[in-house]
Amino acid sequence: xxxxxxxxxxxxxxxxxxxxxxxxxxxxxxxxxxxxxxxxxxxxxxxxxxxxxxxxxxxxxxxxxxxxxxxxxxxxxxxxxxxxxxxxxxxxxxxxxxxxxxxxxxxxxxxxxxxxxxxxxxxxxxxxxxxxxxxxxxxxxxxxxxxxxxxxxxxxxxxxxxxxxxxxxxxxxxxxxxxxxxxxxxxxxxxxxxxxxxxxxxxxxxxxxx
Length: 210
Prior knowledge:
Elements: H1 2-9, H2 13-21, E1 42-45, E2 48-50, H3 53-63, E3 70-74, H4 80-89, E4 94-99, H5 102-114, E5 120-124, E6 137-142, H6 151-156, E7 157-167, E8 172-179, E9 185-193
Parallel strand pairs: 3-4, 3-6, 4-5, 6-7
Antiparallel strand pairs: 1-2, 7-8, 8-9
Helix pairs in contact: 1-2, 2-4
């Protein structure tokens, strides 16, 4: 799977190496284990999905992750994407992963502990508000589509940092957001994507997506 992604997408060596080390089948329900290495999203319960491997690879490459980065993930799901990022940032780095659904957060925590990722912290909460106690962050990424880029995430991004976030409801686009050393924000669109909606104070309201 990873070799095909490398050939088709030209993903970087460090992202490819990280994905080779993370066993995706651990992060999917047992009924989907046979499909774990197919390049497609899979349901993980509570109306949520684990992202397709190609999207995980693309987002990691767009973030330009480095060893030692402190990274905020909004939407931990079952923990797969956080595990890939944790491989790249290494023991000197840290991943703060926020998940609003307690059952999924606990599953992510168990999966990551089982695989020995002690550089990932799972937080139950509203990810649209970020996580101020650990801010600022070198990199931020969001695994659900927001109606707009949440202001708290921009505020918690370190000068010189980068964020990747899908934006939109019926038509969604993946944005790359950069904050320069003076704090100015630059946004560019990578391309169209399809994600579940981001629920929270600075996202969609639950009644809007029922």
